[in-house]
Amino acid sequence: MDASSPRVLFVHEYTLRPRHPNEDFERALLRHLHAQGWQGAPVLYGRDHEDRLIHSVLRGTAIHDGRHLDDEYLAGAARLVRQFHDLTAGTFLAEGQETVCHNALDPRHTISQKGMPYAFVDWENSAPGPRLHDVADLCWRFVRPGPGVEEAPRRMRLICDTYGLADRGQLVEAIMWRQDRRRQAIEAGARAGDPRMRALHAQGAAGRVRDQFLWVRENYRELSGAVST
User: In Å, how far from its chain's centre is CA 7?
Assistant: First the structure.
C-alpha cells in the first residue's frame, strides 16, 4: 500500500494526489531515479482529468503505529537512503549541494515487503541538501529517541554505520533542528487554519515532538558520543 494521507486516492494501479508547488522538481527527480534503474520510488506519470498527480502504486505495507522497528529494518532503510543519495549526488538535481534529500523520511512513507523496506513514497518535499538532513530524520523518526525508548544511542549508531555517514559531528544538532522545525510548522499551520496541521495539533503531535526534542537535548552528550566514529 502507498502512503499515508486521506488526500491520496487509489485507483487500480495508480494513486491520485493533489498538485503541489514542488511537483516539477519531484517529477524530474523520480524520472532520474528510474532512469538509473532504481526501483525505490514511484513513477510520476502526469495529471488526470481532475488535475491530480498520477503516481504508480508500490505494493507492500507502510507502518503507521509507531511500533519498535528492528535492526534489520533500520539498516534496510539506511541502505535505501544511501542509494538515492549516491544516485543524485553531483547531478543537476543537487544544484551544487551534496545530494537530493527526501525531507520527509518516516516509517509511514516507507514501503516494505516481508518486513524489509524497499521504497519510499511522498517525495513532494524533496530538495537539494546535505546528506546529514535525511540521516537525521532516519535517526529521529525511525528510532524515535525519547523517554522509555530502549537502546536509542546504539540504534542511531547502527543507522549511521550502515549508511556510511562520514562526518557525524553535527548529527545530534541536526536532529534537534529538524524536530524544532517540525514543531513550529505544525503550530504555525494550525494557527493559519491548515486542515492537516490542525488535525496533527489536535492529536498532540507538536507536544510529542517537543518532548522528543527536550529528551535529545538532555541526552546530547551521550547521543553524540554514541554516534561518533
Answer: 18
Asked whether residue 23 is assigned to any structural domain, the reply reads yes
Answer whether residue 229 is part of any domain.
Answer: no
Residue 1 lies in a domain: no
Distance of alpha carbon 153 from its chain centroid, rounded?
A: 20
pLDDT < 50 stretches in the chain = 1-4
CB 90 within 8 A of CB 119: no
Residue pLDDT, tens place only, 181-211: 999 999 999 999 999 899 999 999 999 999 9
- Measured CA to CA, the distance from residue 218 to residue 228 in angstroms comes to 18
Residue 105 lies in a domain: no
Sign of CA dihedral 83, 15, 45, 130: negative
| C-alpha to C-alpha distances, 18 to 22, 50, 186, 214, nearest whole angstrom | 11, 10, 20, 35
What domain range is 36 assigned to?
A: 9-56
Element (H, E) at 6: none
- How many domains does the chain fold into? 1
Instruction: Specify the pTM.
Output: 0.91
For residue 127, the cross-strand partners are 101
58: three-class secondary structure by DSSP: coil
pLDDT at residue number 53: 85
